[in-house]
Design a protein that fits this description.
Distance between the termini: 45 Å
Number of strands: 12
Helix content: 10-25%
Structural class: alpha+beta
CATH architecture: Beta Barrel
Number of domains: 1
Oligomer: single chain
CATH class: Mainly Beta
C-alpha cells in the first residue's frame, strides 16, 4: 500500500453510531498524535453528517491534550444547526475517556458574490527545487534516533521548500517560510478528502515560521513545542494532488507562544485557503 493510500485510509473515519466516528492513529515521528491528523479526521467526521452540496468554509479548533499514538480516537459530532445556507457542526475528539481536541466547523452552499484575493508571492516553481526528503537525507544520520525512522519513510505529502534551512544547525532569519506541497500520488475526486488532506498538510511547518527568528528547531530537545489552536478558511476549489504554494509567516511571539498564519496558492496564483495557529514554544529550565 502506498503512503498516499495510507493517508487516505487514515482520514476515512469509521462510523460507530449516529454522530460517533472512530479514527486510527498514525505516527510521523512527533511525540504525540500529529495535530494535522486530528484536524483532518475531525473535518471528515463532521462532513459525514452534512448534506451533499455544502462544503466546509471555515474551522476553528483547540488542542486540549496530547494524543496517544497507540490508541484510536473517537469523534463525537454535535449537529448544532442546519440552516438554509449554512450548516454548523461541533466535534470533540476523545481518547481514554477524556477530550483531547474540539472543533467548530461551518459548511455553506456555493454562492456567487464579490471576489478579491491576495496575490501569490513571486517565488521559483517546484521544478528544480530539492524535495524535503532529499534535504533530510543529507542530515538524517544526525537526527535523534527516536525520530529517525519516521523521517526515513516515504511521506504521503511531497514538500519542496523554497526557504532552505538546516534543522540541526538553524540560523536566525526573518519569520517567513515558503514551500510547495502536494499529495505524492493522484487522489480520488472527493472534495471532502482534498479539504481534509489540506487540513492535515496545514500543520506542517506552520509553527516553524515562529522559530526562525530565534534560530530554534523542532529537533532541539530543550524546546517543548505544541499546537494550541488552529483555524482554517477555505476560499476556492483546489486539488491536493496538484502543486500548492504554502506561504507561512509569524507576526508575533511572546509569553512562550508563537502566532503563525499561512496561505495556500495554486500554480496559477489563486488563493484557495488561509490558516492561522498559535503554538507553545517553551524552553526547558536549565538542568
Amino acid at each position: 500500500m502506498s503512503m498516499t493510500q495510507e493517508l487516505i485510509n487514515l482520514l476515512q473515519v469509521e462510523p460507530l453510531e449516529l454522530n460517533l466516528f472512530r479514527g486510527i492513529s498514525g505516527d510521523i515521528g512527533s511525540r504525540a498524535v500529529f495535530g494535522g491528523q486530528v484536524l483532518g479526521q475531525a473535518l471528515a467526521a463532521a462532513a459525514r453528517t452534512v448534506e451533499e452540496g455544502r462544503g466546509v468554509h471555515s474551522l476553528h479548533a483547540y488542542f486540549l491534550r496530547p494524543g496517544d499514538k497507540r490508541a484510536p480516537i473517537v469523534y463525537d459530532v454535535d449537529r448544532i444547526r442546519d440552516g438554509s445556507s449554512f450548516t454548523t457542526r461541533r466535534v470533540v475528539a476523545i481518547q481514554h475517556g477524556r477530550p483531547i481536541f474540539n472543533m467548530s466547523a461551518s459548511f455553506q452552499v456555493f454562492e456567487d458574490g464579490a471576489e478579491h484575493a491576495d496575490e501569490m508571492p513571486d517565488v521559483p516553481g517546484p521544478e528544480g527545487l530539492t524535495p524535503e526528503s532529499e534535504l533530510l537525507a543529507a542530515v538524517i544520520a544526525r537526527l535523534p534516533e527516536k525520530v529517525r525512522s519516521a523521517y526515513e519513510r516515504v511521506r504521503p505529502i511531497e514538500i519542496r521548500p523554497v526557504t532552505r534551512f538546516d534543522p540541526l544547525a538553524p540560523t536566525a532569519r526573518p519569520p517567513l517560510f515558503t514551500a510547495w506541497v502536494r499529495a505524492a500520488d493522484p487522489l480520488p475526486d472527493s472534495p471532502v478528502l482534498h479539504q481534509a488532506m489540506l487540513a492535515y498538510t496545514s500543520d506542517f511547518y506552520l509553527l516553524h515560521a515562529a522559530l526562525l527568528p530565534h534560530a530554534m528547531s523542532f529537533f532541539d530537545p530543550a524546546l517543548h513545542i505544541a499546537s494550541l489552536d488552529h483555524a482554517m478558511w477555505f476560499h476556492r476549489p483546489f486539488r491536493m494532488d496538484e502543486w500548492l504554494l504554502y506561504v507561512t509567516e509569524s507576526p508575533s511571539a511572546s509569553n512562550a507562544r508563537g502566532l503563525c498564519r499561512g496561505r495556500f496558492f495554486t500554480r496559477d496564483g489563486r488563493l484557495v485557503a488561509s490558516t492561522m495557529q498559535e503554538g507553545l514554544i517553551r524552553l526547558a529550565p536549565p538542568a
